[in-house]
Amino acid sequence: MSIRLTRGEVAELTGKKTGPAQARALDAMRIPFVVDGLGKICVSRQAMEERLSGAKPGHDPASEPDFSVFDRRAARHDRQA
Predict the structure, then answer these.
(1) Residue 1 lies in a domain
(2) H/E stretch holding 42
(3) Nearest to 29, CA basis, from 58, 51, 56
(4) Cα-to-chain-centroid distance, residue 1
(5) Exposed/middle/buried for 44, CB within 10 Å: 0-12, 13-18, 19+?
(6) Number of folded domains in the chain?
(7) Residue 45 domain flag
(8) Which of 14, 20, 59, 73 is deepest in the core (most CB within 10 A)?
(9) Which domain holds residue 51?
(10) Cα separations (Å) of 2 from 5, 43, 45, 73?
(11) More confident residue, 77 or 53
């Protein structure tokens, strides 16, 4: 299985036949894509699977900041007041 969708799979996913219509549909579905050197829409299988499963594309919880320091400061401030 290829890491990117076939042209037929892109057409099936979007319900559109032409590149510009497919691009608009993918934008509306918030599925990332690129246009190759031949002007064809390229969608990674992983991006499509993540989006259809409800996951945010490229979302990595480990990359989010740790805001727990603010919780500790607030708790300390409450005790002092």
Answers:
(1) no
(2) strand 41-42
(3) 51
(4) 21
(5) middle
(6) 1
(7) yes
(8) 14
(9) 7-80
(10) 7, 11, 8, 50
(11) 53
Amino acid at 68: S
Indicate whether this model's pTM tops 0.85: no
Q: What is the pLDDT at residue 27?
A: 95
pLDDT beyond 80 at 75: no
Instruction: For residue 2, tell me if it sits in a domain.
Output: no
- Residues 13/43, Cβ–Cβ less than 8 Å: yes
Tell me, what amino acid is at 1?
Answer: M
Give the integer Cα–Cα distance in Å for 13 and 43: 10
Average pLDDT over residues 24-50: 94
| Pair of tokens at residue 32 | 């990332």
Res 8: pLDDT: 96
